[in-house]
Structures are given as C-alpha cells and as structure tokens.
C-alpha cells in the first residue's frame, strides 16, 4: 500500500492513472477514489480538483453505461468529505459531512432518478421473492425509497473508508503514526451529536420510504464509538488482543451495537478518554 501511495504522489499522470483505472474497475473504485483524495488532502484544491476531474470521467461512464452510480457518488462524497477534513482538521466535521452527502445523494435519486431506482428494484425482486417464500413475514416490502437509502448508506460508508485510506497513506508518507492518533482522538462534539440524533429521529418518525434513511445518521456515531474503543485500548495500553476480542463480540452480540452508539453519544459530552490514565503497552 505504501508503494502505491508513493506512486500516486509522484505526479499528476500517476495520480490520474491510479484514480481513473480504480474508479473504472468498480471493484477497486474505493482505492481509485482514495488516490484522488490523497492528492486533495496533501496538495490542496487545485491539484486535487485536477485528479478528481479526470476520475469523474470513468465514474460518469460507469453510471451512464453500466447503470451503477456507486463510484460517482463515492467520488463526490469522498472529495467533499476530504475538503472538510483538510480545512477543519476535524474528523467529526468530516464524518457529519459524509452523512449529509449520503442523505443528499439519496434525495437526488428519489427526485430525479426514480426510473433508475425502479430498475434496480426490479433486478433484485426475484431474490426478494425467494427470501419471502422461505421466510414469510420476515422481509418487508422494499420500495424505491429503500433502494435510495441503500445507495446513500453505501455512499457514506465507502466515501468515509476512502478518505480514511487516503489519510492513512498521507500519514505513512509524511506523518508516521499521525493517523492512529487521529483515530484514537476522534470524538463528536455535542452539537454534531444532537444534530445527527435529531435528524435520525425525524427520519424514523416520517417512516414510509424514509424508514431506513436514519442509518446514514447513525454511521458517524458508530465510527466515533469504534474510535472510542480504540482510543481507550490505546490509552490503557491493553494491546491488540482486546481489539480483536471486541470486534468478534460485535459480530456475535447485537446489543453491543446499541451500547457502542450510546457510549459514543455520552463521550461527546464527557470525553471518556481524557478521564483515563495513560499506560504504556506491555
């Protein structure tokens, strides 16, 4: 990964090649987006916009010809998120921006691309019918609003991961250990937390086509919760084994997700990590 980051930073041609080819292959779209975002984070808007522009061409082609808007929304979402991160140096602001871009993308799709959503829904209908036949009543009727929500959630997730990958590359090349410290210190402010929870509750109350849209607002809180766990483990010097155990438990125990979200919300007010002693890793 370091070698790829070094190659991207050698010049415009290399950055455009990695970004364009990555976005065009679909499978490695998030790597291509991360390459464009790395230039944006390191060299600023002028150089970054040049790479993003050329990466947009295959993204638009995929959306037009291949009928997949994922790479396009990911690239745009990651670019806006990276700009906010570069200007504020605050992951909390960047994560809330990613959620806003996801919501905006879903809203645009429902308003101007309903035919595209219908085509996607028709594509998965045979699978949905098979699932309903095997487990009657277990799966609700899926609407185009649900499909838009899924695309929005995907946009938030993959654009955030792309920016994180780019930030990690930047840390490897220019600030060793910086990304780890940023993640350990990541914490939402009370204002951002209140805003996310308020929008989440509003969308939950609206229901109907918007019943799953609240997930986009939950995602920054979940990421903040994961950062809290990493920060606590690092501050107490507990070692990586505790992180592995936590993620295994997260996969097995569903209530742990609720506890994680609540911990992140509480942390936005009382800063749990600041109250803990600093211990070296054994």
TrEMBL record:
<protein>
    <recommendedName>
        <fullName>DUF2232 domain-containing protein</fullName>
    </recommendedName>
</protein>
<feature type="transmembrane region" description="Helical">
    <location>
        <begin position="210"/>
        <end position="229"/>
    </location>
</feature>
<feature type="transmembrane region" description="Helical">
    <location>
        <begin position="145"/>
        <end position="166"/>
    </location>
</feature>
<feature type="transmembrane region" description="Helical">
    <location>
        <begin position="15"/>
        <end position="41"/>
    </location>
</feature>
<feature type="transmembrane region" description="Helical">
    <location>
        <begin position="241"/>
        <end position="266"/>
    </location>
</feature>
<feature type="transmembrane region" description="Helical">
    <location>
        <begin position="53"/>
        <end position="78"/>
    </location>
</feature>
<feature type="transmembrane region" description="Helical">
    <location>
        <begin position="186"/>
        <end position="203"/>
    </location>
</feature>
<keyword id="KW-0472">Membrane</keyword>
<keyword id="KW-0812">Transmembrane</keyword>
<keyword id="KW-1133">Transmembrane helix</keyword>
<feature type="transmembrane region" description="Helical">
    <location>
        <begin position="98"/>
        <end position="124"/>
    </location>
</feature>
